[in-house]
Structures are given as C-alpha cells and as structure tokens.
Write a structure and sequence with these properties.
heterodimer; A: mainly alpha; two-stranded antiparallel sheet; globular; B: alpha/beta; five-stranded mixed β-sheet; 10 strands
Chain lengths: 328, 279
C-alpha cells in the first residue's frame, strides 16, 4: 500500500487537474479542446484555458500543496494534531499585509501590491513569533504564534473599521474569504518561486521530525538540532504559506486536514508524511476550486476559502471527538 | 409619519413667498442639487463627503462654491448648531438624524435617489420648489433635456461593451445603464450572461464578446486587487477600460448627462483607434 500511495495520489491529482481545466462557468468537452488546439490561432477556448484556467490550476495545486506540507511539518514539529500554518501567525500576517495594500490603495494602482505586502506581512509575523519564542519550548512557540495572530487580526479589524469607503471594506472582506478567481500568470510568477523555496526548506525537516516524535530531549540526543529544525519549519512556512496566502487570500483548514487524511496511510510516521500530505493538500484545493467555480448560489459563486472552511469545520469537530476517544 | 411629513411640508409651504434663507444638505447627492440651485451664501453646509477627492463632479463651478460653504457629517448636533431654515436629506441616508428632525418638526425635505433621467427631473423640481428656486430648477432641467435630445438624435448602432460599475456588473435598470445607452453602447453583461450581483465572471465576460470595457470609477480611493478588468488577458483583448466618473452616475442630477457625453467621446476615440490599428 505505502509503495503505491504516492503514485495513486499523483494520479488522483492529475485527474482532478484535467477536470479543473474542463469545468467552469463555461464547460468544455475534451473534443472542444482538441478542436481548439487544431485551429492553431488564438480562439476563445484556448485563451480561457491558457490564460485563466491553467494559472488558476497551478495556483490551486501549489497553494494546496504548501498548506498540506506545512501542516504536516508543523504537526510533527509541535507534536500537536491541531497545529496548522494559521497557528503561527503566518496567515494572519499575510492577511494584514495584503489588507494594508488594499486599504491604502496601493492595490488599485499595482496589481501585485497585495501579494507582495502579504508576503512581507507573513515573514514579519513569523519573525516576531520566532523571536518571542526563543529559549522557550514548543508551548511558547504556539503561544507566540497565537499572540501574533491576534495582533494581526486586530490590525485587519482596524482597517475594516476605518475603511475609506464601503467598497474598500467589501474588498477586504472578500479578499479575506480566499479565492482563486481572476488570477493570472502574474500571480503564478510572483507566488511559485517562494512556494517552491518554502517547500524545499520544509521537505528537509523529514528525518528530524521522525526523531522529534520521540521527544525533544531524545531527538537532541540523536544529534538533531531542534532549533535548526524549528527555523527550517518556520521560515519554510512563512515563505511558502505566506506567498500562497498572499495570492489566494486565507484558505482555511487545508493545512489541518491534509496531514490527517494522509497520516493513517503512512503508519503515522511524521517524516514519511510530508509528500503524501503535500499531494493530499493539492488534491483538496484543486477539488475545492472546481466546486467553488461550479456551485453557484443565486448567481453568486462560493469563495474558495468559504468552501474549505465549510468542509473543514465539521472535520475539526470529528477530529476532537476522535482524539478524545483515543485518549480515553 | 404622514402627519409629520405633512406638517414639515406645511412649515415649508406656509411662508410660500419667503424661501428658506439658509439650506443644509445631509446627503452627498442632495449636496449637488443644492449647490447647483443656490448661491453659496444661502447654503449653511453640505456633507463632508462632497469635499473629498472626486466627491463632486468637475462641472459648473461646484468645487469653487463648495469652498465657500460649511461642512456637516449628517449629525443632528450639527443641525442644531448651524440652524438652517431647511434641511435637505436623502430618503434613505442619515435615518437617526431624520427621525430626530421629524420629532422636532424641523423643516425637512427628504429626496429619493434618482435611478433614471425621469427621476432626475422629478427630484430637481422637488428640491428647486422647496428652496424657492423653481425657475432655476426648470432652467437646469431644460439644459439637461436639450443635451439628452442632442445625444439621442446623433445616436448610432450600439457597440457591445462589458460595463462595470466599480467592481460590479452595471445594474440594468439604473442611471448608469441609461447613460450607457445614450452614449451608444450596449452592455453584454446582462442578467443571462452572468450574475448581476457581484463581480462578473471573467470567462462569461469573454464569451459574450464585448468590444470594449466600460467602467464607472470612483475617487481613486481603494480598492480592487483582483477584479476581472485587471486581468492581463482582458487588458490585452479589450484595451484599458473606458471610464465614466461615478460621481456623475451614482448621484442623479442635471449634470449626469455629462457622463453620457464623456463616454460617447471616449467610445468614438477608442473605435477610431481600433480601426486605425487592425487587430
């Protein structure tokens, strides 16, 4: 089973990706695409595929992948099944950065202002959380993350409160709901390098996570530098999830769910979990993005972040009940 | 409620010859009407919204007049302090202040927002009558009607455009839609081509094959980050959006006809430019 796991997840992701190219407000049959390719010149089908759906698909897969991976690493590092990227202030920091860009109107003049500010916000929030937790253990890292998250959340609320016009407040709210609508290759170009770099840093923690599963002291006795692992995990999350949040807004619960879905399939070994969690995260977001495009309620499409939260919240409840049963 | 209204009207109507000496406007749209109808010395104040960048249309020396009149934030305290002879308010805005003025039987005129040129005629007459400038009101309406006729007689086949009002699809039954039609454009983003509420769907927008993008733009305050009109593909296919100042279409006043004239000119220029450079 475990040898087939990665190829199977990869295959599922490929199938979902193909479906995501065909689905949308205008549905394409595979024959339409073949005909469009045959025509050669730029036609509507080709333009929509190349300029709208392909960048959107790439973003969905990479955003989902980095969320799943970062969730797996953080759950391993903190040895806490409820850990996720949002816990360390990364999402809140990215949100605050992007909201500042929207609020001060930079975003209206420069397409990538919100993503760039989002990335800066994520890095800053994580740096503060890391500095605050220095010398303390896992618990102090979680507490620092929660504190930074709350501070950034207060900043977002302040911006909403003082928004210069109702449309700005609306824009901020919509942005916070998370979406991949109307993203372009520019967004891919901005986010992908950071997501890839963050992903590489996170993947390097695999062996150390296995050792950390025994406890921090035991891991140190095995020659693992806990501080280095923590730095890799935090910096990788800030870069990767920060860039992801910066282009897509907040997409909740994927970082929490994806590792849990994949964990039983790798016999609960945190180091082995990283790739399956990445693929599961990518699969989740690609599927959720298809759903958010095709499920339209009274003319208003559902935002991606809203959709993942709607699925995620019941899962969270199930997780709490499941854990309680395990510990009893 | 009706009795109070009637009483307010009575208070206005009784000294029919004596027009209110000083008028205060509590709504950004009535600001424009009051500024158009009255000399600055007869205006107690207008809202702070009109003083912001883009808060007023460029035309008719309104900005110069604005500098000579007071400012309010729609608060009852300000009515007490400024003691105007008539308060002109929007029929849906500043509800708390209006309720208080009703209870005090303060002279108050409540003006609907205008969703069509017919509405504009009605509310311009209503305000002109109340402030004792009916002739000035009729002159403004006559000037607007002359411009409307000029636009109607020179109309050609409508160009298909994708029309947005800020971030949203332009509502079909609105002043902005009427402006669009007068300018010689047809919105392809009608209800069956995408959600009327909210942002238009980029794929449906492209599939409806508009020739240009028309966008009502505000004061330059924030904020779109990911609006469909910012998508590089759309910019390449349709060129930069042809903009209409929203301060002319959000508030229906006799000046709103300028929006149609501005859009007509931009459409003609964009068509000529595209004809000169075949795709």
């Amino acid at each position: 089973m475990s040898r087939l796991l990665l190829p199977l997840l990869g295959l599922a992701l490929l199938l979902a990706a193909a479906a995501s190219l065909l689905a949308g407000s205008i549905w394409f049959a595979p024959a339409d695409i073949a005909a469009a390719l045959g025509q050669g010149s730029d036609n509507l089908v080709l333009l929509i595929l190349r300029e709208i759906r392909l960048p959107r698909l790439l973003l969905a897969a990479s955003v989902g992948g980095i969320l799943g991976l970062s969730g797996a690493v953080l759950q391993g590092l903190l040895r806490n099944p409820l850990a996720e990227p949002g816990l360390l202030g990364v999402s809140a920091g990215a949100s605050l950065g992007a909201v500042i860009a929207i609020y001060y109107g930079f975003a209206a003049h420069f397409l990538l202002a919100a993503p760039l500010f989002g990335l800066l916000g994520a890095l800053l929030a994580t740096a503060i959380a890391f500095a605050l937790s220095q010398g303390g253990g896992t618990l102090s890292l979680i507490l620092a993350g929660v504190a930074v998250s709350s501070a950034a959340g207060a900043g977002v609320a302040l911006a909403l409160n003082l928004a210069p016009n109702p449309y700005a407040a609306y824009e901020i709210l919509i942005w916070l709901m998370g979406s991949l609508a109307d993203r372009s290759w520019l967004h891919v170009q901005l986010a992908l390098p950071f997501i890839a770099t963050g992903g590489l840093l996170l993947l390097r923690t695999g062996r150390a996570l296995d050792a950390l599963a025994l406890g921090e002291v035991q891991a140190q006795s095995l020659g693992i530098s806990v501080n280095r692992v923590r730095l890799l995990a935090l910096f990788g999350t800030a870069l990767g999830v920060g860039a992801a949040t910066a282009v897509s807004g907040v997409i909740g619960f994927v970082g929490l769910i994806a590792p849990h879905v994949a964990r039983p399939l790798v016999q609960h070994r945190p180091g082995k979990l990283l790739w399956p969690a990445t693929l599961a995260g990518a699969l989740l977001v690609v599927l959720a993005d298809i759903a958010s495009r095709t499920l339209v309620f009274g003319g208003v499409p559902l935002n991606l972040g809203v959709f993942t939260s709607l699925i995620g919240a019941p899962f969270f409840l199930w997780l709490v009940i499941h854990l309680r049963r395990q510990t009893v | 409620m009706w009795r109070v209204l009637a009483l307010a009207w009575l208070l206005l109507a009784l000294p029919a010859a004596a027009a209110p000496a000083r008028v205060m406007s509590l709504n950004q749209c009535t600001d424009q009407l009051v500024l158009l109808l009255l000399p600055p010395e007869r205006i107690a104040s207008v809202t702070w919204l009109s003083g912001r960048p883009g808060g007023l249309p460029d035309a008719a020396g309104l900005r110069a007049k604005l500098a000579q009149v007071g400012v309010n934030h729609g608060l009852a305290e300000e009515v007490v302090r400024q003691k105007p002879d008539l308060v002109v308010a929007g029929s849906t805005t500043t509800p708390a202040t209006r309720a208080l003025l009703h209870r005090l039987h303060y002279p108050l005129l409540e003006v609907d927002s205008a969703d069509s040129f017919a509405d504009i005629r009605r509310i311009t007459r209503q305000v002109a009558q109340a402030v004792g400038e009916p002739a000035r009101g009729e002159a403004l309406i006559a000037q607007m009607d002359a411009e409307l006729r000029a636009l109607a007689t020179s109309r050609r086949a409508a160009v298909p455009v994708a029309a947005l009002d800020g971030a949203f699809t332009m509502r079909p039954e609105s002043l902005a839609a009427e402006v669009l039609q007068l300018a010689g454009a047809r919105n392809v983003l009608v209800p069956d081509a995408g959600p009327v509420r909210g942002k238009p769907d980029l794929e449906l927008l492209l599939a409806a094959r508009p020739r240009f993008l028309v966008k009502g733009t505000g004061s330059g305050a924030p904020a779109l980050t990911t609006g469909p009109e910012l998508h590089p593909l759309l910019q390449r296919q349709l060129g930069p959006p042809l903009t209409i100042p929203q301060n002319l279409t959000a508030c229906g006043t006799p000046l709103s006809v300028d929006a149609a004239r501005i859009l007509r000119r931009k459409l003609d220029a964009a068509r000529a430019a595209r004809a000169a450079r075949p795709a």
